[in-house]
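Last lecture ended with a question: if I hand you only a sequence, what can you say about the shape of the protein? Today we answer it with a concrete record. The protein is Cellobiose phosphorylase. Below, first the input exactly as provided, then the predicted structure, then a couple of comments.
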Amino acid sequence: MKYGYFDDKAREYVITRPDTPMPWINYIGCEGYFGILSATAGGYSYYKDARLRRLTRGRYNNVPLDFGGRYIYVRDNADGSFFSPSWMPVRGKLDDYSCRHGMGYSVISGKKNGIAASTRYFVPMGENLEIWDFTVTNERAESADLSIFSIAEFCLWDAQDDATNFQRNFSTGQVEVEDEVIYHKTEYRERRNHFAWFACSEKLTGFDTQREAFLGPWRGWEDPKAVAEGKSGDSIAHGWQPVASNHIKLSLKPGETRRIVFVLGYHENPRDQKFDPPNSQTINKKLVKPTIAKFRDPKNVDAAFAALKENWDTLLGKIQVQTPDVHTDRMVNVWNAYQCMATFNMSRSASTFESGIGRGLGFRDSNQDLLGFVHMVPERARQRILDLAATQFASGGAYHQYQPMTKKGNNDIGGGFNDDPHWLIIGVAQYLKETGDFSILDEKVPFDTTPGTEVPLYEHLRRSIQYALDNIGPHGLPLIGQADWNDCLNLNCFSDEPGQSFQCLKGATDGKTAESVFIGGLMVLSCKELAGVAKAAGKPGDVETYLELAQKMDETVRKHGWDGEWFLRAYDNFGKKIGSHENEEGKIYIEPQGFCVIAGIGVEDGTARKALDSVNKHLATKHGIVLQQPAYTRYYIELGEISSYPPGYKENAGIFCHNNPWVIIAETILGNGDQAHDYYTRICPSAREEISDLHKNEPYVFSQMIAGKDAPTHGEAKNSWLTGTAAWTFFAATAYILGIRAEYDGLRVQPVIPKAWDGFTATRVFRGVTFDISVKRAGKGNRVALTVDGKAIDGTIVPLPKDGAKTVKVEAVLS
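The predicted structure:
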């Protein structure tokens, strides 16, 4: 069953009924101010850090799930009836409803008894605020006397403390109201550096800032006292639960439309702000009054929305394709790229499935996210790389996560994830290929954000490899540490404190035995990538060093990581094989099959083909490739969290979509475009739209996980939006299936497309030059012949024009 449709021309997904299987969300904001926004106006807002600068409340595990958000109520003053155009929170039957999720905005509309209302939510570029652009139309034959009520519930900034420390927080809420603007200044007494505000373009009939006054005793959001009675209480919050609610009365003639702009904003004083007087507890409202005045004017709101649209035109215009497959076009041109922006901004911190409290930005995650983002805003990618490198230890290890507000590592999740350092190399290499900006390698970056420890970024990359060399196990493979990419494959190797020694089961070793074949493959790739960086940066001595290390690890993986038909996954802390035909359960894992082939291991001798054939035989399902088989049917303490999940879910034989693209890329490396695109389609959300009742998650963004064949709900998705699946599927589709990828010397054009495709066209902006690419098939193979501006060239890399031209015409023929 479908709950909406793609409006491809408008770049919107249109939801036509509000009772979607899960809250189907969008993100507003793409710079410093962000918000989660569901199709029924649920969600919350924050500035930079979803935990430490939460503006409005979000409650998880609510019933219904999507409760609390950016609500507007429309009340008919003649009979006292009211409705919410967003359906929630009133949930009354609407005569008409739609939500149009677009690029950085959503328009939610509802109609009831001849009154049509619509709200356009978005965050203007360059501003730390959000707009609720509300219009209401009287479609009746007679005049309508209406009351409009808005409501936003403030969070007391630290979302963790807000949700737990009630004995304190019920006494700290503070607001000021001046010129009909509500200022949320809780915590200002203590920090004196930030506050929020809520303003409206219309003259107010009333307001409320105390939640209990707005809702009334023993009432909920679906039936607030102020709305039911048609009168606000002009309440001032002193402790308890601060809110911002405006009440506007309107009298509309038949056919008349009125527009009201609500604005929720954030202000942070500059670090050198001088307070006058120094101990004043009164916020400096004059700093935001010009912004408030600006966005109370609908003309400025329209201009801001036009600028937002233009920004997305530019971002998405960096790569556009026209292929024979609507799902490929839809995802590559719009939704997958859009999701890559969200993962870059949020990492894995704030979504329907992530509370914004438990995680900050991930070291491994954010480096991988660069693969799908760096071509859009390379200057932001550059800063992210430097921030990530600053959370690395002098040993080459790294904090697994860090808070974006402080840019310091999370002490409760320190090092020990032994794949982490390699991803920095891969992220930096991709940035360098995309931009040619080798100056970043000379940027001085500290270790552990500690002043006085600064070394060039290139040294951080060297330390990443050194960390791996310092953590080699008995077979010569990298030690897995607390975990590798698969956080749940712990192999009984845990650490009480960051940097402290590992604890293991009685009879096991001290953490110096459990090895990862996956990290072995990852290390082969990272050494090759670092050799490429060194060559392009003019460091020939390092090129030979890292290629030799890659070759040595390649041989080690072949010798100790091959199980006969596929690559082993690991050795546990007792030296026993994981992911082997010798195991009763968990005989074969997906990760090393895909990644070892990406690293080039076994590509020439047929070993890689055997591994991928085993994936197809043992792991592939109609809904995607499962992580391992057979599923674990009981808990294995020596394996850790992976076996704590029921069969078919998450890491226990679920379809972990993040690593499906590794197999997709591997198939293109071996020239199998049909299989690569088939695997791509199985997890593609657009292609799964018809089964939304089963899939449940949004049909316009990839999910982290789809229930595997061992699960009773095979095909059901979870953890949408914030997943490495976004960057990797974009990278797999554009760089390997379509074959358009950045290299140090130019833009490679080497498609590996399905045999049924007669070709495709694409536009790719690379280092300021627009490459117009046309691919035509003259045979069923993948041999590529390139013509550039009418002249045939050797190879598959198109160099940048030497004459300074800004456009290049590329024709590729496949035979």
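Comments.
1. Residues 648 and 712 are 8 Å apart (CA to CA).
2. The first helix runs from residue 159 to 164.
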